[in-house]
Amino acid sequence: MAVSLSFAGETLVPLPCGALHWPARATLFVADLHFEKASSFARGGRFLPPYDSIDTLAALIEALRRTRARQVVCLGDSFHDRGGPARLPARARAALTLLTASLDWLWITGNHDDEAAAALGGRVLAEARIGPLTLRHEAVPGCREPELSGHFHPKLTVQTRGRRIVRRCFALSDSKLVLPAYGSMTGGLCVTDLAFTAALGPRREAVFVEGERLLRFPVAGQVAA
Amino acid sequence: MLPAPITAWFDRRGWSVRRHQREMLAAAADGVHALLVAPTGSGKTLAGFLPSLAALAEAPHDGLHTLYVSPLKALAVDVQRNLLTPIAEMGLDIAVETRTGDTPSDRKKRQRERPPQILLTTPESLALLLSYPDSAGMIAGVKSLIVDEIHALGTTKRGDQLSLAMSRLQALSPGMRRVGLSATIADPEAWAGWLAPDADAGIVRIVHGDPGAEPVIEVLIPEDRIPWAGHNGRWAARAVMQRIAGARLTIVFVNTRAVAELVFRDLWAENDDSLPIGIHHGSLSPEARRKVEAAMASGRLRAIVATSSLDLGIDWGDVDLVIQMGAPKGASRLIQRTGRANHRLDAPSRAIVVPGNRFEYLESVAAQDAVRDGELDADAFRAGGVDVLAQHVVACAAAAPFHADTLFAEVRSAASYAGLTRAEFDRTLEFVATGGYSLKAYERFARLKLDGDGRWRLTHPKLAAQHRLNSGTIVEAVQMNIVFGNRRGGRRFGQVEEWFGGQLRVGDSFMFAGQVLEVTGFEGPDIYVRLGRGDPKVPTYVGGRMPLSTNLAARVRGLFNAPERWAEMPGDVREWLEIQARRSRLPGHDDLLVETFEESGRWYMVAYGFAGRNAHQTLGMLLTQRMAKAGLGPLGFVGTDYVVAVWSLERVRHPAPLFSPDVFEDELADWLAASPFLRRAFREVAIIGGLIDRQLPGTHKTGKQMSVSSDLIYDTLCRHEPGHLLLTAAWTDARTKLTDIERLAGLLDLAQRKLVLVELDRVSPLAVPVLLEVGRESVPGAADSQLLIEAEALAAVAMGA
Predict the structure, then answer these.
(1) Cα–chain center distance at B204
(2) Higher pLDDT residue, B420 or B542?
(3) A224: in domain
(4) Domain containing B526: what range?
(5) CA separation for the pair A151, A149 (Å, rounded)
(6) I need a surface site. Which of B118, B132, B595, B706 has the fewest CB within 10 A?
(7) Do the beta carbons of residue B146 and residue B179 sit within 8 Å?
(8) Could you tell me if residue B610 is inside a domain?
(9) What is the pLDDT of residues B181-212, one digit of tens each?
(10) Which residues of B touch A164 (CB under 8 A)?
(11) Triad B101, B104, B109: Cα angle to 5°
């Protein structure tokens, strides 16, 4: 039983993996895949485990299998750097090329990547609009149109009963929905941070799926120091 | 034996050369390595330097003659003062310089080109120095290496690093003589082995200093009463303040930074005469610490509340009293802390121990006895970590290309790595070169490559620079900065650990540096604060608490079994022991007393293991897991240094199987894998081993979402490469350091031989303190999901930054 939220008059379904499903359009949104982050660090002498692209892709394929989405929109920073597509391991490259060929695939560019992803198939755009939704990498403060974006890697920390639980989450305001980072080796920024206040305004919610339920945590507006 | 200027200097001061100083000179004349074991205040540092001064006075030496390494940055500065003064007074022309993290890089460069004759440094700065290609020439003629406060270094990762550096130095200057200076230690022979090339204790001459005057240690029990619970002696603040008023300068030692804040506040509340009191701990900003140290040195303070940040030989100020708040946990530590009072050998050092509760009273008496008997705690030497070795390999490559065989032999000559196998060395080398993954993805990005001569060579100079930025073996928990003021003109006050900072909300207040601060906002790693009031929280810090030493544990058991000693104890304690003996039993010299009883509708089982906090907490986990399987409905547990208590729905009738050593290793492995210990240990080895960058102060503002979480790497490795070198290293660290496996195994073994079960109809006197203990752990039953759902339902959500 999927859990959904209403945004811009549309029914959108956040998935536990951090993707957002739009059943009416058979579309799946993901943000900040950061493919080849590990090899990007390796280039600089930090040998992170070389499995991030494979893990991220496996999660994405599983989400596509469950939702049967026919369209995929990656909301920017799909590769950790501009050289990422060229470094993709053969196995991941083959899988991704197959996906972009069989689905309607849209790469939105971010601050980490550019059109290079087109080499793997799919279309590349800086911004796009589907129905009422504006799609871009980084939220534009003050933009009143309903907007889906990524960039900030929202996460929520809940302290309860002596435990400290951290989850990737969606950050939601009246007209903006920021997706969590999907990449298996991406970090996060707490939704209470001032960066979110600047982008979404002081009133916002942290939303994520836990088990069968959609949990919504209001974020208290923080006065700028 | 000494050159004229030095003899004249001794004469002028009316001093004669002490026996141990003469013996150190003789060792130098004979060209043998030496370890000086002497109490504080015996002229130990001068004894270490005297042979170098004599040699330099007699024959001018061009270039670096003596390298001096001390564990404390401030200590190197201090010794410079204490060394420069004698040199100047002797009229010797000897160049002495320091080299620490604070030394400007142009001076460091100049030191490599034109070194002073004596260089004072730290293990970290020494390791960095050795990573420069031009350091080899500087080191080539070094005659002696002096390692001060060796006892504070050997058993840690800093010790691993120093051990490797010593081998490097020896290879660069084969004639170099090693000199160790140590406080009084339990096993000088073992330390001689640690100091020696190839761990060969036989080639080190051990020199003992004369014992100083017996320290005078008092256990303070105002009004003959002592509380049931608590660990920091705060209840005695008034009496402590009176003692401070009666002394010239007092150091009040506490066991944790959190307690430092609390004790400071308590003392201030009793400070009717407004005596100047300061506070000193490792989370204060360096500027704040330097300020307090300066105030202490110039005699402007009457007391300073301090953690182990002041443990080592600081000669500032005229300290005449040491007060230890809470039990000392080990006799060696008590002696070393006591030695901070009075740096003169002929007068006794005075110390007062303020126990926090009745068990701690016994522990304090035990420590007093141990000090009197000169019984010190044995040091737990450990095999050097592969993470530190990996760092060393990069440093060596940064200095010059190397042959694997040569480096392996050199590394094995370091005592900490004497047992390293060639396979482990090769795996470490591979890890450094390409990450050590079975998936060979990073050959093209290799950091080390074999050149035509079969030598490993760094592939890019930027890797050397990266290494130098991240070098070092001290890894702190993730910190948040406390910034006083606002974003435009904030002043950094110090740091708290992220998990504590994450609990704070805007408007909350907390204690820091003896002040109440109110949170005004968060941004990235910064917490903005202003002066506040009200009921503050107290920041606590993970780890850092030393468990009760095996020695003192045995002595505490001894006191239970020596009723003739009870007469000297406060009425409270005597009565406590007498009623325990009547109602239940007292723990024996060598048994495991287990009590069961009902209290407030729960069944308790209390086991008197005396195996230290870490072992007891691990045992608590193990017991509750096994009780759950046995259907006893465990609800929670708490472990102290003395006992572990478990509460449950059902009464434990047959405790022995719960303490069985069978499959203990497997259960422990399951538990450790899910515990935060292993993740914390992994973060440390990942940073030291150079898998991820250290967060340097001031650089992490660039956006935390761009950094790499060690937890994510840990999870990935567990999934894809469970045998990875760093996972193994994290396991080793977690097992030894965090959970005290050996003591726990000993306890389980004891339980099989001598478990004494006493079924009671109510709580026993000895069990009361543990029932009042804070820091109870509930059995993980409710999954994170349930907790989150519950948290959402609550209107007030505790949000973290």
Answers:
(1) 27
(2) B420
(3) no
(4) 479-531
(5) 7
(6) B706
(7) yes
(8) yes
(9) 998 888 999 999 999 999 999 999 999 998 87
(10) 499, 502-503, 800
(11) 105
